[in-house]
Each structure stands twice: as C-alpha cells, then as structure tokens.
Design a protein that fits this description.
about 325 residues, alpha/beta, 7-stranded mixed sheet, 5-stranded parallel sheet, about 25% helix, binds flavin-adenine dinucleotide, disulfide bond, oxidoreductase
Amino acid sequence: MTSTHHRLVIIGTGPAGYTAAIYASRAGLEPLVFEGSQPGGQLTITTEVENFPGFTTGISGPVLMEEMREQALRFGTKLRSETVEKVDLKCRPFRLTTNVGEYTTEAIIIATGASAKWLGLGKDLELSRHGGGVSACATCDGFFFRGMEIAVVGGGDTALEEALYLTKFATKVHLIHRRDSFRASKAMQVRTLAHEKIKLHWNKEITHLQTIRTENSFGEAVEKLSSLILKDTVDGGLSSLSVKGLFVAIGHQPNTSLFEDQLPLDPSGYVLVEKGSSRTIIPGVFAAGDVADHTYRQAITAAGSGCMAAIDAERWLGEQG
Ligand code: FAD
C-alpha cells in the first residue's frame, strides 16, 4: 500500500473538525480531513439547533453541518470518507492507517468527538434522533420542554446538574437513580434534595420507554415519549411514570480508543490538552472539541476549539520551518 504525505491531517468532521479545516485551509495548509463513520458528527442526528449563533430562527443540525462542509471545501480542504484505524505518534512524520490507505503527516488535529452513553433500551437512541422526547443534553434541549413534566436518569454530578438546570423549564423533574445514594458531590446533592421541583426516585431502573404517535411541527408523523416503566431494584416491583421528556445523564464516551497507548488521557478517556490551548503533550498533535472537553460539550465550544487547534497547528508548523 502506498502512503501519501500531508502537512496537516484532521480526524473528524463535527463542528471542531470542520472549523479547524476552514481555518487551516485558509492558512494554506491544505489539510486532509477524515470523516469517519459519522460525517458531520453528532449534530447530524438532531433536528433543531437553536443555540448556534447566527441563525435567529434556529437551523437544522444536518443543514448546519452541510454548510460547514461546503465552507471547508470552498477553501481547498481535502475530505476523505475514511475511518482512521491506527495511528503511530511515536515516529516522525506521524503515521495513520485508515480502512482505505496509509498516510503520513507532520501535524494532526484530533477532533473525533464523544458519544453519549444511552440506556440500551433500543428506543432511547432512536427517540433522541428526531425530537422524540429523549436527549442527552439539557443545555441543548431543555428549552423544548417548557411547562412539561420530565425525567432525568443518572446519579453523578452531571445528572444532578442537568436536573437542576431543567427546573428552569419543566414543571417537575423526576430524578431516577438505580441506587439509594448519589455519586455526585455533597454540595450538588444538597441543592438537588432541597429543590421543590425535583422528585427523587431512588432504587429505580427504567425498563421500557412507552410512546405515542403524533405529529411534529412539520406535520410529519413521529413517535414521542409518553411514559417510563420503572423497576424497583430492591423488590422488583414495576410502576409507570408519565413524562414528556427523558434526559439520559449516565456519562459520555470520548472517541479515543485509537490513542489509548499513544497519548495521555484523563481517567474518563478524554485527551489531555495544555490549559488554554489545544496542544497535547506531543508536539504537533492537537485536540479540539468534545474529545478533549467533558465540561461544555457544545457545538459552539467545539467550533471555537477547532479554530484554536488550527491556529496552534499553523504556528507550530511555521516554527518547524
Ligand atoms: P462530533 O460532532 O462528535 O464529531 C466527531 C467526528 O469525528 C465525526 O465526524 C466522526 O465520524 C469522526 N470520527 C470519530 N472517530 C473517527 C475515526 N477513527 N476516524 C475518522 N473520523 C472519526 N450542541 C449544541 O451546541 N446545540 C445543540 O442543540 C446540540 N444538540 C445536540 C443534539 C444531539 C442529539 C447530540 C448528540 C448532541 C447535541 N449537541 C448540541 C452537542 C454537539 O453536537 C457536540 O458538542 C458537537 O457535535 C461536538 O463536536 P465535535 O466536532 O467535537 O465532535
């Protein structure tokens, strides 16, 4: 197999990868960008994005990502529908193997994103894709549940944070946890337990998502969440809980398996970058977006860090002569 050499390779085409590609292309670096198995990234599986600046009435996730793609192509980005299967960051130039070919590069921007962990009930992922009432992001979707009764599942800091945040919109937030105590910090627990809109359901597991057929705002028939079936983890008893929304807050999985033995990762598997930059411990390797961010996980922060990574990469390549 022959390999081609590039100055900069970007892995991933979510908001971080495309933004990095736009900046790097405009800087004349002619980046080679690998799309992976989800071209356009996580936003391609959502309907409305209402919080990306510049779109007063919101924009559909897939349309936003198509616009970013076109913008990157306009400046000369080279896109490949390939998935990176192996990287070698121990040699110079760096080596990458995809499902199609082999490549060498002087610098790499890792923008492989992260995936929400789902309950594995079959329907939760499907319902999250078309506004069916299931979400893994309160900041993104909380606003859609104004005046409704909803549930959050999880017991860590994120779950409690999401529950507290959602009290701004929902009439009631049911917090479902399969144990009888939280893993979250004490301060977060105190705030959650004291909140009048939050009802706790200890020792409960969700076993089924029940749905109804209805119409969305475009007049299309869609399936929407109507209630949850809960199982008591102590006595096995079943109960039903009527809610219009479910926020799954049981964690995220950064897409970093490729880098496990190549780069230092934090205990949750996120790529570690130098504070305030996109630089990893390896000179010439940069990371942007959700793959290095377990705090914000937003399209705009991913795009912002993609910009930082392109500028960091351009400066680093410039210093190499
Ligand atoms: P991602 O979008 O995750 O993209 C990762 C990219 O890396 C993909 O193209 C993938 O194919 C590629 N990749 C991964 N592994 C490889 C590999 N080995 N080789 C090649 N390519 C690879 N945020 C908001 O700001 N507003 C919202 O309204 C909003 N709604 C959301 C709704 C849903 C259903 C979801 C799931 C997320 C939502 N988010 C929202 C969060 C937002 O989508 C993410 O924060 C953002 O997409 C992160 O961008 P990213 O570029 O870091 O990674």
